[in-house]
Amino acid sequence: MSEVVKDKEIKKTWKEKVHDELTVWKETGKIIWNNLKEHPEAIGYFVSGLITIGGAGIALISNQQNKVEEGCKIHDEMTGFDWVTDHKLTNQEKLEVNGLIDNDGYSLGHALDTCGYLKKEKKRR
After folding, report:
1. N or C terminus: fewer CB in 10 A for the chain?
2. What is the CB neighbour count within 10 angstroms for residue 117?
């Protein structure tokens, strides 16, 4: 059997599998639609379930964002201010900032700004 014939058979079986899968989804959709027509109160359960799942997804995403932002905050004990960096600093970057503070007498904010690690704040109108 040649390669061309094998490829054609593989494509044919793949197309048949996709067609069969689509047929199953169409039939499932018809069954669901018919049940919803017979029981319209189920639409409320369906919608409330979607809202609950959507809300949980949004909460999960925002929680992950908060964790990332917490890793980017550096607390300045002298001023009590939290400096926000554009990324979580590595140990090497922390050593560089501490070197500027110890050797050159910079404040934490000035050292972070000199190294270019501070997050650029958007201007508010």
Report:
1. C
2. 20
Q: What is the pLDDT of residues 41-60, one digit of tens each?
A: 878 888 888 899 999 988 88
Question: What pTM value is reported for the model?
Answer: 0.45
- Where do runs of H (alpha helix) occur along the chain? 3-38, 42-71, 91-104, 108-115
Written as six digits, the tokens of 96 are 């560089």
Whether 29 and 21 have beta carbons less than 8 Å apart is answered as no
**Cross-strand bridge partners of residue 81:** 76
Burial class (CB in 10 A: 0-12, 13-18, 19+), 84: middle
Tokens of 125: 């109108």
Phi, psi torsion values for 67, nearest 5 degrees: -65, -40
